Structure formats: C-alpha cells, structure tokens
C-alpha cells in the first residue's frame, strides 16, 4: 500500500457543529418534497478522502462512465476539507454531491440523526450479484444505524502487532508475554524501547479499544458507561504500564504520526497499530535497513478474555439523501464495492471488506505472508468498532482517554477512571444517541 497518501494516518475527520447533531432542520423537509430530475448531461459527483483506495477508483472511472453513460466528477479532499464540505452542503440540502465517502464510526450517526444519508437496505439486500452477506460481519454491522444500512464499507482496518524478528524468537501470543518481552528489551538510557504506541488522550482510544475488549470490557455495557468496570480499569492499567514503563518519553503526546517513525527508525521492539500502515516499514524512505529486513507481523495478542481486536470499516460509501441521481449513485457503489473491484484492489494491497477477498490466495499475495495471516485472523476475531458509537464521538473519546493518560504517567488510575466513568455516564444521557445504533 502506498505511503504517500495522507489518509493512512487516520487523522481526525473534524467535528461537525453541535447544532447539526441536535436538529435535522430544513433538510428533512426538502427530502420529503417531490424530487427534481437531473438532466442527462448532469455528472455524477463523488466526494472522497484522498486515500489510496479513492485514488485507485478515480483512475478507473472511465470504465464506469462507459457502463452507465454518465460523466463522473470525483473530488479528492483532505479530511478537514471533506468535513467542511459535507457540513455546508448537507445543511443546505445540497444536490451537488451524490456519492459520499464517510467514516461509519465517526460521523455516520450524526448524518443518520440529521437524515442526510439515503437508506440502502433494500438495495443491498435485494441485489444478489452485489452479495451483501459477502461483506465481513463486523464492518457490515457498523454500516447500520437505526436498523437501516446507510453505507457500504470499502476499506477495512485492524490492529497488527509489528515486531522485530531479530530481537525475539517469535511474536508474543498473549498480552502478558508482550509486557514481559517489552520490559526485558527496554534500554531507555540508550534510546531503545520495548514498546511504542499511541498515547495521546483522544487519539489513543481507538487502539486501546482492542486491549479493552481483550480484557473483557467495553465502552458501553447494557447501554451504560462501561469504562469504570473492573475489566476497563485493568485494561487502562495494562496499557498505561506498557507504554509508561517500556515506551519513549513524551508518550502522552504521541499520535500515529509520532509513534510510527520510532518503530520505523529501529528504536522500538514492538508496536501495535493499524495494519494499513505496514508499508511504511518496508519503505527505504521511511524505515531503516534493519527494520525493513527484520519486521514481522502478528495477530493481536490474547488478554484474559482472549484476543479481541477491532475490525472496522475505516471508510465507506453512502448516498446523499438529497441527490437527484440516487440510482446512478447506487450503480457506482455496486461497481466500486462489488466483488470484482474489491478483488482487484485487494490484489494491489488495499484491504477490502469482503470475506471472499480474504479467502482468495491471489488477493493476499500483495501482502507479506505473515501480515496477510494476521489480517485474516484479526478479521475473524474482530469487533466492528474501535470507539464509542455515539453522536459526539470526539467528546466521547476525550473522556474515555483521560484515564489512559493517567496510567501512562504512572498516576493512580482508579480515581481518574471513576471520575471519567461518571462524566461518560452523564454524557451518554445528554448525547441523545440513536436509539437503534
């Protein structure tokens, strides 16, 4: 997978205005009014993140244009630009975007709450050739809100254990073994660390989620805050201890962009993060020779509750509720996320969302063998979310991440987690989460 594309960093997509989450506004009225018709020469307009997946699709759009007889205009934007554009266009019930590339776990609930996405349920379930059940269960479930399918996953992501094969005989299979090996290999005075990972308050939450699940916890339990549970507390203390005792200084300020280069430059033995960034460690422009020649890939280690990583749709396709070309927009999704295209793109190293592409040796050949196996295993075990499924995701992550910072700094976690749990419980009441999300 190309490393020149910014989207692999999974930076914040930007927060929609709080008012947008609180009211549907005039858009809902427009959606119920009679639809105007688009002219035959109106282009199908697609807005997407500047990602290797969307770059690959854009290069192939002529094929789709010939298929439907309509011109395609595909705009690739940065995360912030995409967020701002959606906010402006959708609040105004704009018809000048048809297909939208969205993050099912970040903004989809807000879009659903505001009735900005077309219901795709009948389309995906009624199309045998599209084979909706071929999509992995966890990403498929994440595509739903309020009992409706609102998006189709096109890019998936799991946490992979990156490790130095020249330093250990094999990858640790359990979290206890990871802790032991990481501490043993740590040489802080020499600038070498047993483990590196995200520690920034909000940004670390998505990676910590797999530790939380593997300790038997969850963000929500029976619809209520779960971050004050015994399992969550243990997960906080474990991750904080791992990064605090075996990690580099300044870990609480580390996002993906700060943590990844430390492993790439040969300064850490273990690193857990998105499998989508693996190519950085094979790239001579990013990684040292020692790392390129010795990097190994392994499934997420097992905790007390087993190995339970996340397996998420990092990017999905939806249809603007106000689009005048919804049928053609669906045809685009059928083509771009269909079995043939999914196989073709995964063969080029872009992880897809269909079971069939993960079962086909030809589509896995683009990845290092042990990486492909770790992806497959993590996908089988994975849960379909890596953050709380709420409307105000950014605020939720900020609350949940507070005990993480305390744990990394070596402070007492219990009182911080107790306060965060109370704050999160109050937040859930005020957040007005989608009842069937």
UniProtKB/TrEMBL annotation:
Signal peptide: none annotated. InterPro entries: Bact_solute-bd_prot1, SBP, TAT_signal. Gene3D superfamilies: Periplasmic binding protein-like II (3.40.190.10). It comes from the Bacteria. PANTHER family: ARABINOSE-BINDING PROTEIN-RELATED, DIACETYLCHITOBIOSE BINDING PROTEIN DASA. This is ABC transporter substrate-binding protein. It comes from Streptomyces longisporoflavus.
């Amino acid at each position: 997978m190309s490393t020149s594309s910014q989207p692999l960093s999974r930076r914040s997509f930007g927060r929609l205005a709080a008012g947008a989450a609180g009211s549907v506004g005039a858009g809902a009225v427009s959606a119920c009014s009679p639809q105007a018709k688009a002219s035959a020469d109106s282009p199908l307009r697609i807005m997407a993140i500047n990602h290797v997946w969307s770059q690959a699709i854009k290069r192939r759009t002529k094929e789709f244009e010939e298929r439907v007889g309509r011109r395609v205009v595909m705009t690739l934007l940065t995360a912030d630009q995409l967020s701002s554009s959606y906010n402006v266009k959708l609040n105004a019930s704009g018809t000048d975007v048809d297909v939208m590339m969205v993050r099912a776990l970040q903004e989809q609930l807000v879009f659903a709450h505001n009735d900005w996405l077309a219901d795709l349920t009948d389309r995906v379930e009624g199309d045998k050739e599209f084979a909706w059940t071929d999509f992995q269960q966890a990403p498929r479930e994440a595509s739903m809100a309020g009992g409706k399918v609102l998006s189709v996953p096109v890019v998936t992501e799991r946490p992979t254990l990156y490790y130095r094969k020249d330093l250990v005989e094999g990858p640790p299979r359990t979290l206890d073994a990871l802790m032991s090996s990481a501490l043993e290999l740590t040489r802080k005075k020499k600038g070498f660390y047993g483990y590196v990972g995200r520690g920034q308050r909000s940004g670390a939450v998505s990676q910590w989620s797999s530790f939380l699940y593997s300790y038997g916890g969850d963000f929500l339990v029976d619809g209520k805050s779960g971050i004050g549970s015994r399992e969550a507390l243990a997960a906080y203390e474990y991750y904080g201890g791992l990064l605090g005792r075996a990690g580099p200084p300044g870990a609480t300020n580390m996002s993906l962009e700060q943590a990844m280069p430390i492993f790439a430059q040969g300064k850490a033995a273990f690193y857990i993060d998105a499998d989508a960034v693996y190519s950085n460690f094979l790239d001579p422009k990013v990684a040292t020779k020692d790392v390129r020649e010795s990097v190994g890939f392994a499934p997420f280690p097992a905790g007390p509750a087993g190995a339970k990583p996340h397996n998420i749709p990092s990017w999905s396709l939806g249809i603007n509720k106000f689009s005048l070309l919804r049928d053609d927009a669906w045809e685009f999704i059928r083509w771009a996320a269909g079995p043939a295209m999914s196989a073709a793109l995964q063969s080029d190293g872009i992880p897809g969302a269909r079971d069939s592409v993960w079962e086909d040796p030809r589509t896995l050949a683009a990845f290092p063998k042990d990486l492909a196996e770790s992806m497959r295993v993590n996908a089988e075990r994975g849960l379909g979310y890596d953050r709380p499924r709420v409307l105000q995701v950014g605020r939720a992550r900020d609350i949940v991440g507070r005990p993480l910072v305390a744990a990394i700094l070596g402070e007492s976690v219990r009182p911080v987690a107790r306060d965060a749990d109370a704050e999160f419980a109050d937040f859930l009441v005020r957040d007005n989460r989608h009842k069937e999300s």
